[in-house]
UniProtKB/TrEMBL annotation:
Source species of the chain: Streptomyces niveus
UniProt feature coiled coil, ranges: none
Entry annotated with the keyword Signal: yes
Protein name: Peptidoglycan DD-metalloendopeptidase family protein
Lineage of source species: Bacteria, Bacillati, Actinomycetota, Actinomycetes, Kitasatosporales
Signal peptide: 1-25
Region (Disordered): 173-209
Pfam families xrefs: Peptidase_M23
This protein's record includes keyword Signal: yes
Domain M23ase beta-sheet core: 73-142
Keywords: Signal
Length: 483
């Protein structure tokens, strides 16, 4: 048995005794003290230096007890002999057995009420760690040698009243560092009061439902309820709350034979936060048999992004560099709900080496499931860069669409180079070599590397010697937090 450092509750109490010793008091004839535990339980008894206290004559007379074969914390403690509960303190019970004899029990949680008359084997409390650092029962026996009663006004209740405990007919003189096991014979004939109603058993609730949810779609919330041994707890209600505050959505399920409770949120409606998560709480309120428990989680909220613009250009012309910012530009759209971003169309762009007309862009997001579609249209574009043949593009439409299941793009346009129409295949990333001076990529499609699903589609992308870069009809979409 390991050595412990315990905080022992005071034994020097000042209360009125319920009865003075009678004329038949006899220190040599103690009550038939039994182990203070139900019949058949075997407990380890031990002590440590200073527990007696050690004063040369008293040795170690106080005993600590733990249950090697069971759970000490919460174990029932019963009267080791019949008597009257003379005092109850935080963690402690004192019993006056009459004829000058007393017993004391410390470090208990629930306790019998003061003044109650108990028989051998009656419940008086539950072993715990009240006043100490690990669960055990402190037990001692006293005799009123000074004739003042124990504990009583003027009586010290101290070491001069402690005796070596006699338990089940044997006197125990346990030395520090040693331990003895003893099996209780307390009320093995069936005596004693019935045990009190058991305390509710601890439970654990674990969330097991959807971890990724989408606005406009259903979500399945579920959790498993188990007892402290890991066994399922059936037929108990579990409440789920998705979100918080004004956006909270709730439902309730009942645990089945496997301890699983499930309920649906028919249509998720949650705001998109910076971290794109939604708090979830699952709770079991508890009952007479089981203690309450809960679990929390942060569910990923699916969302989409999109951007579209008609044209951008950077041409490092001598003396007069040409820079055209994306026009018209939706900017980056980030949404978990259904929205449309559509800036005003640009009627035309006129520059020294470039002109364009009828430029429009739009991003549309949808829910149930999440979807983002970016569209860019340009009526016509003319490009005449030094060293390159004239390029004419018309009827341009570029589209990018992303969901959690796919990302797709398409382009339609008509192209002529140096006045000659060019036949275009219906395949992405078609490259037209313009010689050492540059190249043209039609239906350029670039998968996103920062999204679960995502794609950038450029209708026409022109690069030329010297760093010229012209993009016509650009669209980008992405889908995030996909399951």
């Amino acid at each position: 048995m390991r050595k412990r450092i315990a905080v022992v509750l005071s034994t020097a109490l000042v209360v009125l005794a319920l009865g003075a010793p009678t004329a038949s008091a006899d220190p040599d004839n103690p009550p038939d003290f039994k182990m203070p535990f139900p019949c058949g339980q075997a407990w380890a008894m031990f002590t440590y230096e200073g527990h007696g206290p050690a004063d040369g004559s008293q040795e170690q007379k106080r005993i600590d007890m733990q249950w090697p074969d069971g759970e000490t914390d919460g174990a029932d403690v019963v009267a080791s002999a019949g008597g009257t509960v003379s005092h109850v303190e935080p963690g402690g019970v004192h019993i006056d057995h009459g004829n000058g004899w007393f017993s004391q029990y410390l470090h208990m949680s629930d306790r019998v009420e003061e003044g109650k008359v108990v028989k051998e084997g009656d419940w008086i409390g539950n072993a715990s760690n009240v006043g100490t650092n690990d669960p055990h029962l402190h037990y001692q026996q006293m005799y009123d040698f000074d004739g003042n009663g124990y504990p009583t006004e003027g009586g010290d209740g101290g070491p001069d009243e402690l005796v070596h405990p006699v338990i089940q007919g044997k006197e125990y003189r346990i030395t520090p560092g040693n331990a003895e096991n003893l099996k209780s014979t307390n009320s093995c004939d069936g005596g004693g009061d019935p045990e009190p109603e058991p305390e509710p058993e601890k439970t654990a609730l674990t969330y097991t439902g959807d971890t990724s949810i989408s606005n406009g779609s259903a979500a399945e919330l579920s959790a498993v309820l188990e007892d402290k041994a890991g066994e399922p707890v059936a037929d108990r209600p579990v409440t789920f709350e998705l979100g918080d505050g004004d956006s909270a959505q709730t439902c309730e399920g009942t645990t089945d034979a496997k301890g699983a409770a499930t309920c649906p949120i028919d249509e998720v409606e949650q705001p998109l936060s910076d971290d794109a998560t939604v708090p979830l709480t699952a709770a079991f309120e508890g009952d007479d048999e089981y203690e309450p428990s809960d679990d929390t989680a942060n569910l990923d909220l699916r969302y989409v992004t999109g951007r579209g613009y008609g044209l951008s250009a950077k041409v490092p012309l001598p003396l007069l560099p040409l820079v055209i910012d994306p026009t018209p530009d939706t900017g980056t759209v980030r949404e978990a709900n259904a929205e449309t971003a559509s800036p005003e169309c640009a009627e035309g762009i006129e520059a020294l080496v470039l002109s364009a007309g009828g430029l429009c862009s739009e991003v549309v997001t949808e829910t149930g499931p999440s979807r983002s579609t970016a569209t860019s249209t340009v009526a016509d574009v003319s490009v005449g860069l030094p060293g390159l043949p004239a390029i004419e593009v018309s009827g341009i439409t570029a589209t990018s669409t992303s969901t959690c299941s796919s990302a797709q793009g398409s382009v339609s346009l008509e192209l002529s180079i140096a006045g000659t129409p060019v036949s275009l295949p219906d395949t992405p990333n078609f490259v037209i070599d313009l010689g050492v001076a540059g190249k043209l990529v039609v239906n350029e499609q670039i998968p996103a590397d920062d999204a679960d699903k995502g794609l950038t589609v450029n209708a026409v992308h022109l690069t030329a010697l010297g760093g010229a870069d012209v993009v016509i009809g650009s669209t980008t979409t992405g889908a995030f937090n996909c399951p």
